[in-house]
Amino acid sequence: MRGTIIEAIFWASGASVAYVYIGYPLLLFLLARLTARTTKPNESFLPSITLLISAFNEESVIAEKIENALALDYPTELLEVLIVSDCSDDDTDSIVRSYASHNVRLIRQQERLGKTAGLNLGVSQARGNFLVFSDANAMYQPDAIRQLVKHFAQPGVGYVVGNARYAKKAGQAASAESEGIYWKLETWLKEKESEFGSVVGGDGAIYAIRGELYSPLRPTDINDLLNPLQIIVRNYRGRYEPSAICYEDAGDSFEKEFRRKVRIISRSLNAVRRAPRVLLPWTQPRHWFALMSHKVLRWLAPVFLIVALAANLFLWHSPVYRVFAILQLAFYFLAAIGWVLGERRQISKAFYLPYYFCLMNLASLLGLVKFLSGSLSPTWQTIRQEGSPRAAIQK
Question: Would the pTM count as exceeding 0.85?
């Protein structure tokens, strides 16, 4: 009897992992094909916009970001550029002030309170009817904002998420390449979720909302997930626009990506806790399905992986389960080799992809621990190397 229970635990845990990474994408693909919502956005819809750019010690990129914003293909009288400086102590603020004659405004927090607190302050002073959120290193293609706002001509659309891409660099580290592969999957899921019902969450680099739908957040809240969840609860939906493109740099090391993921996941779990109605399937069934499958179950995937391995080892006496155990251990052995090889430029995918998979699941596990312990950080550090993604836009 005991062995039967452990077998059931093994199969349930393994099936959960398989569903997160294989089953959900396949099921979503089929659902999007069968039930896709076909709506034609209004290309001529041009409302007043405030572009809110979060910045902390961004002197190396802020001038380029402002130039990029001023070069956008959008009527200048309808576009306000607002930089929110989180108590920067480098030359960020002075650089922003030098653009004051170009309808670029600086809002400075006098103490470091974090990105979300800065956005609360910025939104309270924004003049546009619609808000576009961006990061200092996210460089937009000229038509990016036009592509975002065209969806707001539909009254049921509350937020629109753009297509953030990673700028390719010669000789990039394995961490950047791994993140690029991961991001391609994320982008594909966003596209299919949007076709099926509503895209889950925003993207701090490029997403827009109706100004009246912004709710002031706590400093520890992650704005690009909690705010969309709050909008969903108000019976709006979110769209993904692949033509609204921006480029930013991936983290230049596995360690930096790992720290960023831990922080994001802990605060994302907190966002779901702060908007509990999204967990009720009858609120918006399609969004609930995507949220649970894409986010919640993936955050719990490391728990499923640990349970599956532990149950499998307990069943070692069975030849069949011994094969499964050996396959799991071999996968983790490849990941360990990837960890040992570290940030070398030339690493076989057989090593760095298992390592990246394990690292991201470890980040989910630590994020879960941080969430349960209430250890949520409101502040952030940039994770990128020095350098400009501008060249990628011109390709």
Answer: yes
